[in-house]
Amino acid sequence: MNEELDFFQNLFDPATQKINMTLLGLQLILTPLLCFIISYFYVRFGNSLSNRKALSKNFVLIGLTTMIIITIVKSSLALSLGLVGALSIVRFRTAIKEPEELAYFFIVICIGLGIGAEQMLVTFIGTLTICLVIFITNRKTVEEVTQNLIIRLPAANRNQSEGLVEHLRSKSSALELRRMDENSDGLELSFGISFKDLKSLMEVKDHLHEKFPDASFSFLQKV
Asked: Is the pTM for the entire model greater than 0.70?
C-alpha cells in the first residue's frame, strides 16, 4: 500500500518532473495569447471565402497542442522518434481549399514550436512582425467596402458572363475571381469585390439588376 502511495506521489511531484512547471505556466499563457492575436488578424484582414470566425477558433487549440508536444518530446530522444512515427499515420480528411488558410495554420504552428522550444522572445517579436506585415499589406482594404459576390447565370445566358465581368471591373476598385462552377443548370461565379464606399456598392447592385435581369446576385459580408 505504501509503495503504491509513493508511486502516485512521485508521479505528480513537480520535483520529479524534467519540465520546469513555472516555465510551463508561462508557456500556457503566452501561446494562447499570441494565437488569439493571429486569430483576430485572420478574421479582420483575411480574404478567405470560408467562415473565418469558425476557422480561427481552431488556432488556439493548434498552437497549444503544438507547444505541449514540443515541450514533452524535447527532453527525450525516444519520444521524439515516437512522434515522427505517430505523425506519419496522420492524414487530413478535409483539404485546405485556400493558400491563405495554410499560411495562417503555419503561423500558429510556428508559435507553438517556438514557445515549446523556449524561444519566447524570438516567437513574440516574430509574431508581432507578422501582424505588422498583415496590417500594412491590407490597410487599403480596411478603408474600402469589401464583399463576397456570388452571381448565378441561367444556362441560356452563359454568354453574358464576359460582359458582366467587364462591367464589374469598371465599377469596382478591386475584383478577384475566386471560384467558377458550371453545370447543366447554368454558371455560378464567386468574386471578392471592393468598393470605395457603401454608396458605390448600392449603385452597382442596381446597375447589375437593370443590365442583367436574368442573373441573380448575392452580396455577402466577409466574415
From this structure: no
